[in-house]
Fold this protein.
Amino acid sequence: MRFGISVPNFRGPASLETFNHVARRGEEAGFDDIWIGDHIVMPKKTDVEHPYFGTNQWGSDYRPGSWSGDIPVYEPFTLMGYLAGITERVGIGIGTLVVPIRNPVETAKMLATVDVLSGGRIILGVGVGWLKEEFAALGVPWEQRGRRTDEYLALMQELWRNPEPEFSGQFYDLPDGIWFEPRPAAGSIPIWVGGNSPAALRRAARIGDGWYGVDVDPSGVRTIKDELTHLMDQNDRDSSGFICSVRVDVEIKDRPGVKPAEGPAEKVAEAIREYEAAGLTHFQMATSPRLSTDGILEQIDRFCEQVEPLLE
């Protein structure tokens, strides 16, 4: 089992202090990778229900509503470069990049650049997006965003893998005679397809190096892992090295919480063992947005000191 830690770059404690301390502490603590999210703008109000949290069984507060104007939203590519500069070993993931809202050639260039500068440490989680107002603010059509995502990912992989790329699609035609350098350190960048929907699972099975879920309990992971194995067989793909990852809310505290990894260290460790038995190969630890920077650091310390020894 590999372990990641979220570094919040919007809402809650998103700040330079958090980036510096959480990224460095995560690397020092031995986490395999650190993770940020993706938004460019947030609407004052939305009627769209969050695809993961709005109806989950734990009564999350991510329902349609409004955000205050003082919520910071840090641009992810710039931040990935910064995190690469203040760390040395740890992988740097984005979960998940809203693929269809950006120019795919520019996106491929920024990711390839930060991958080379970081020594090949980038992991790309991808999704189609859920905030219609964000698409409108960027002048990107909301319709057919799934097809646009598939095409943009195919184009990005062509740019990364072929020194003389060629591409013609429904939404983008690459002109002849284009050079694309630098290319990623390993020749491409691993893509983990985010999302719990049937469409996301089909996309992961077709093109993904992994699948990235949010707030899925161990029984859900087992079901999704079985479906992914079936879908990969249909696509004549070997599923043996495929990454199965979930972003899990973790809060180590004296009293049990309602989520699988909320409560005493023993409960959190048992939840991780259940996730691993269900087929999870990567566990991303996320913390509550109500926590301060010091609160996140305390959770990292408690995880390393109280939970990890129970997993040995």
In short: The chain has a mean pLDDT of 92. Residues 98 and 129 are 5 Å apart (CA to CA). The longest helix spans residues 293-311.
